[in-house]
Amino acid sequence: MMLNDLANETLTAQLQAYSQRRFTGRLDIRGSITWSLYFCLGRLVWAAGGEHPVRRWHRLLKQYCPQIEPDKIRLREVNMPRTTWEYLALTVLVKRHNITGEQAVDTIKNTLTEVLFDILQHSEKERLIFIRDTQDILDASLTLINPGTALEAAQQSWEIWRNAGLGKLSPNIAPVVTQAEILHQMTSPGVYNNFVQLIDGKSTFRDLAVTVNQDSLVVTRALVPYIRRQIMGLMKIPDFPQLIAPIVQGEETSRILKPQATHIQTHSLKPRVSQTPHPQKIHHASSNTQAKLVRPLVACVEDSVQECSIMADILTKARYGFVSIPDSLQAVLLLLQYKPDFIFLDLVMPIANGYEICAQIRRVEYFKTTPIAILTGNDTIVDRVRAKMVGATDFVAKPIEARKVLSVLLKHLDLSSFSSDKFACLPDATV
Question: What CATH number is given for 272-429 in this structure?
């Protein structure tokens, strides 16, 4: 992590600077509370942290994904990221067709608006420090948001809130009835009963707004007169517990969403690794696989099991190490883990296409010069130009054949840099 050299500038200047730099990574904004903004190529991917991240998740799912019950989702994974689990859950919900891509985008946009609103409010009462981390990369598989557009939406909400005389009042505070008798005298029985049931000190202004299907500004302004007369008070309340279930030793952890009422189930996100001399068998990677991998190591990001099997057979017969990554959502993270010497990248995959993933890979310093070949059934001039624009080294037309695969490897890999005890082409593997 590095302390930002723009730490004394405004949030607007910060976002403009990172957009212009085409920054990829995480930007932490720290004060009494910490928020995190995730970038890909200068665009916003996700926002995390804040006072009530789980409450925010519950609210936004109720608003934009009403078919999903937040309480029924349980994430289970030993290395589950504690700050981006919501984003990971959204990607899985989209991939399993539990929600639409549009619903996911609406959730992301409003998450950004809430987080940026809170940062703007806190920036007026305390000094914020900006710290960047170029190693924490989030797959931009759902959408990329223009930082200027996201900030403009948050600034408009903040200006309206402040101009209404609410600048010092946080929407994350919970109102509570403190003078029930006086309230009873001032209101009708129906209004009183609604107030007592809703204003119980367990819901923030934002929570209440979702409950009554109103804008948080409207709800807050309606309650301010009672607060000023001390008929209602304000209190800080804790966040909901995080939805990551504890892992029981020996329990299967390859699923990232535990299927309950929403019936969400995922396949393992671990890559499949092949090593010689058993090319026909693709093993699941384990925590100590990397140290045993054959070099040169070739990675293939491909969701088709059949295509991966063909690639594994070709490469292991030719004495290459091979790692298969079937899930595009985890591609960059797993590539960083295994650090292959060559990457084959399928063009057409669910959610994120090969062009998007290639651009993400090239933003990682380690992979600046790693050869990347796009695999596609559409070998056109337009496709080749676009592949070059996002940093692809070469283009391999499907169907996958040994001659094509081995030719492109020999073209771009300097085999002399690999020791002979780790790599030796078999006679029948020559091109």
Answer: 3.40.50.2300
